[in-house]
């Protein structure tokens, strides 16, 4: 395998499938299959999952809610998604642990770096819920932070688009895809990969990011085997 330890970032919205809200059981099941395959191939898998399918702090704030209160709801939403993914994986016989950045001990282990790394060494899939545990951050930031902390080789950002394009391919038919691109070029061209906080944290720590289409069967395994089917962001 090309990567030994990966941090997979899945957005909450991806879990909705064709629904407007919540979790699509078929999508969840498909993701669990993809993750199981890479784990069975000996790759150590950590996952950060978003919460946008249930709640986003910014949307709460625009509806008049206190932002911090909304962000707490968003963080809890990521724990809900983490529990759903954990259960889908365990149904398929994959050993998992859910660690939360906010203490919720009856539901998930607290985030303890050394323990997380030990789980990975033992072949367990570790899901990180609760984002960074702080308001005003995103789960992309959580993904980069955890990836650095656990010394992952790469962060794999699973999306519904198969990489980074010159412009939004869902709107602009003439958009072309990059096979690889530098951090600097992403910033210079104003391309959207992650929010700026997350992106610069990755750049400063020289952590490569691969953006790829998570919804095509077998793609995750292709990526970890070294096939360049997405876009690699590197130094
Ligand atoms: N959130 C937060 N701190 C974090 C991560 C997430 O406050 O470190 C909250 C924030 O309100 C965010 C919500 O959780 O809107 C869901 O996370 P995100 O929007 O990143 O999820 P995704 O877009 O990946 O589904």
TrEMBL record:
It comes from Robiginitalea aurantiaca. GO terms for molecular function: UMP kinase activity. It holds the Pfam family AA_kinase. It is an enzyme of class 2 (transferase). InterPro entries: AceGlu_kinase-like_sf, Asp/Glu/Uridylate_kinase, Uridylate_kinase, Uridylate_kinase_bac. Inhibited by UTP. Its main location: cytoplasm. CDD domains: AAK_UMPK-PyrH-Ec. Pathway: Pyrimidine metabolism; CTP biosynthesis via de novo pathway; UDP from UMP (UMPK route): step 1/1. Its EC number is 2.7.4.22. The keyword Oxidoreductase does not apply. Belongs to the UMP kinase family. Residues 4-213 form the Aspartate/glutamate/uridylate kinase domain. It is found in: Cytoplasm. Catalyzes the reversible phosphorylation of UMP to UDP. Homohexamer. UMP binds at residues 51, 71, 132-139. This is Uridylate kinase. ATP binds at residues 9-12, 52, 56, 159, 165, 168.
